[in-house]
Amino acid sequence: MNIVVSSSTAGISMRSPVRWRVVWENELRLADHIELSDFFRKTYGPTGAFNAKPFEGHRSWAGARPELRAIGYDARGVAAHIGALRRFIKVGDVDLLVAELGLYGVRPDLEGLGITHSMRVMYPVLQKLGVPFGFGTVRHALKEHLTRLLARRGLATIISGVSVRSTLPDVYLKLPPTRVEDVLVLVLPIGRPISEWPTGTVIDRNGPEL
To answer: Where in the cell is it found (predicted)?
Structure first.
């Protein structure tokens, strides 16, 4: 799960209201992709030039392409974004349908908007889709942040000690086609309780990260 969390709080008290739009990928216009590409480059760029590179050429996705997006807008344009993609992953020996969440970003001047708002917008959408779980991966450095915003509010459970294997989004002659990452797994119980999440120390995406 690509996540950007800004430490800036400037201008929060004077910001304009955020309007959320939930849209299927086929409903996006060219202008939408151009606007989102610019948003991601500006949002991910401060974390490293490599992180902004996938969004060059008006591309509005990094690895796997989402099928559904929740996009927050304010008077300045795109304020926040989170994408979702239904897919089967393998947890240990169990094939499991999930909605993977990714492409999360908040414009640097809107730290107060927070990941909680994005998740609350996406949650009822996932319920309508009938998926048993929401799923995402995050860096260990964000554990305390996400525990405070999501786990303690009962929106998600954070699982550690799991390796996630994914395919690379492109073919590179000097790199293997898959990579294995030691990350935290974020699980949102949607149609089934967290007690029914399979046990396993390896999760196979069988595709690129969202």
So the answer is: Cytoplasm
**Distance from C-alpha of 79 to C-alpha of 81, rounded to nearest angstrom:** 7
Is residue 120 situated within a structural domain? yes
Could you report how far apart the first and last alpha carbons of the chain are, in Å? 6
CB contact at 8 A, 100 and 85 = yes
62 phi-psi bin (left φ>0, alpha ψ -120 to 50, beta other): alpha
Tens of pLDDT, residue by residue over 63-110, are 999 999 999 999 999 999 999 999 999 999 999 999 999 998 888 787
What the block records as the tokens of 195 is 């007690």
Domain of residue 155, residue span: 19-204
Domain assignment of residue 39, yes or no: yes
Cα(2)–Cα(149) distance, integer angstroms = 17
**Residue 112 in contact with residue 76, Cβ under 8 Å?**
no
